[in-house]
Amino acid sequence: MVSDNASIFTGDTFSNYCLENGIRQKFIAPGYPATNGLAERNVQTLKNKLKMFQYTRRFKIYSFEERSQQQIQPRTRCLQVGERVQARVFISNKPFWKNGTIKQKLGNFHYIIELDEGKSLKRHINQLQKVEIKKKQVTFEESKIHH
């Protein structure tokens, strides 16, 4: 199941429900509503198919689910753990790009990024750009100058 990060989906009650019923939760990256739009579209499609089933009684849900899985095209752009990227971050709802390193890949589209400043965040692949900028190494002498 793909959902946004609303408290109804991240709370203990719903998380336990998913765990008990074999539902694997995935959350969209903050600031990338297109992922949620795709989830909403799939829900609408399933609802329409269920309405059809109500009238025809011949439609099989499992065949619809199998077809939708086959239609997913492989992603051409892929990033690897350890690669340097610029990640889109939002400060006061304004987008900025900050340098970081990919620490973990979550499925086909989402990544955990560690920014050079030390903060970790989750981002969609469309919020990332591969860069050749090396992480600046701060020496002991430089750190004394800045403090």
TrEMBL record:
<dbReference type="InterPro" id="IPR012337">
    <property type="entry name" value="RNaseH-like_sf"/>
</dbReference>
<feature type="domain" description="Integrase catalytic">
    <location>
        <begin position="1"/>
        <end position="52"/>
    </location>
</feature>
<protein>
    <recommendedName>
        <fullName>Integrase catalytic domain-containing protein</fullName>
    </recommendedName>
</protein>
<dbReference type="InterPro" id="IPR050951">
    <property type="entry name" value="Retrovirus_Pol_polyprotein"/>
</dbReference>
<dbReference type="InterPro" id="IPR036397">
    <property type="entry name" value="RNaseH_sf"/>
</dbReference>
<dbReference type="InterPro" id="IPR001584">
    <property type="entry name" value="Integrase_cat-core"/>
</dbReference>
